[in-house]
Amino acid sequence: MTTIVETPSTNLGSLQKQPVRAVVGYGLGDFANNLAFSMGTAFLLYYLTDVAGVTAAAVGTMFLVVRLWDAFTDLFAGRMVDRTMTRFGKFRPFILWFAVPVLFLSVLNFNVPTPGVKWLGLFDVSLSANGRVLYMYLAYAVLGLCYSLINIPYGSLASAMSQSVSERAKLVAARAFGAAIGGVGLTYIVAPKISALQKTAPKLSANADAAAKAAYDAAALAYRQNVQSVFTTTTLLFVLIGSVAFFLTFLFCRETVVRAAPRVSIRETFDTLKHNKPLAFLCAASFFYLIGLFAVSGSTAFYAKYVMGDISQTATMTLMNSGIALLITPLIPLIIRKLGKKTVFQWCGLFTVVGGVALFFTPVGGLALALIFLAVKGIGASLINTVMFGLEADTVEYGEWKSGKRSEGATYAIFSFTRKVTQSIGGALGAWMLAFGGYLSATSTNPNPVQPDSAIWAIRFTIGLLPAICAIIAMVIFWKYPLTDRIFATIRDENEARKAELEAV
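Predicted structure:
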């Protein structure tokens, strides 16, 4: 293979210009994804500790084990995608097949059978503490499998819709916009309801007699039932909304760049990292950056409740941290054209560093300052998390140029494998930091315990310093990323020229 010589790019992308409905449809896909994904990252840790009564340490271990399992299911999903071809394409059918299962499994994850609380609001199912932990593992593992079978093809779909840098920028921007709408929207639905209920949570005086204790126990049970009802009705609503959004993705998006993919083994899939240097650097840098990002996601509700003083602030905090993408996303194609994806990924981590360090030192109750620093941190997170999907699509072209084989599913599976490993580590770190800080989970007799100062410190570290440290490491790694947008355009044109030569024979 000869070295890359940069040449002016032909305008192949104009032949794959995406209509507005395709861009909207692609964005709706990640909107639907995040009704399940963001619900889990934002509230599952809180739900399991403060509603289901599972210890933070047990939840942290579950996140680590099951999300590592999820990482390997991504490889399985990638192989399935690469071996699939239907009249509807390679990727779109999976979106249609697994839309309802992945959304309904989110309902099951937020319905751990607990004593005195009806399962799904209908059935009297009560499990022991060990039984609840087993249920938690199984429900989360199956959710991860189904999520892989819809997210891998969805993520691969962008590389099959267009090879144009500018058109892919529109798609990843739409994806980020849809994800932000889904993530922010659900917090405004869930957090205020939980906050209103917490203000009615019963309290037991130290000198209460037997009658007062009995009344407290009854009120505590009613409180837990009401909180559970919020999660049940919300996730059921998301099944309906998300299914419609996924169907529109299937309907509006079209695959125009599809070539037969080789049948590769798991070992050969991992060998992709040896030959695809841009993918290796992207995965390594993303690994560290996303550890901090996913640790923050699970800690936001705790930060709002115990540092800011009201869990309803979760919605506002999410809006500033993640929803800033709603303002930035329309500008991302322009930013990419001016700076290039590598530059954006390389330097926007500074926003995460500055915002994270400042957030750690924000005083308890300093909501205005916290929101400002969350917005600063969110600028970096929204830009980097969006651009990395465009970078992944570019590595598909590099892999084809290097090996002569195009494998969207395997490439995205490797990238998604990295993201899932970081989810496992980031989610586990968030929960383990709570346990390290002595966090007190809810019990049937104390649904709203007072937390020690060490637990508050652990929450502040997780949401502030941890992502800052991880961002610095990611920036150092990405310094050597070799694939600029100009080089990508040259590689893309060479690939198309080869294809034309083969078709002419």
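Summary: Residues 1-15 have pLDDT under 50 and may be disordered.
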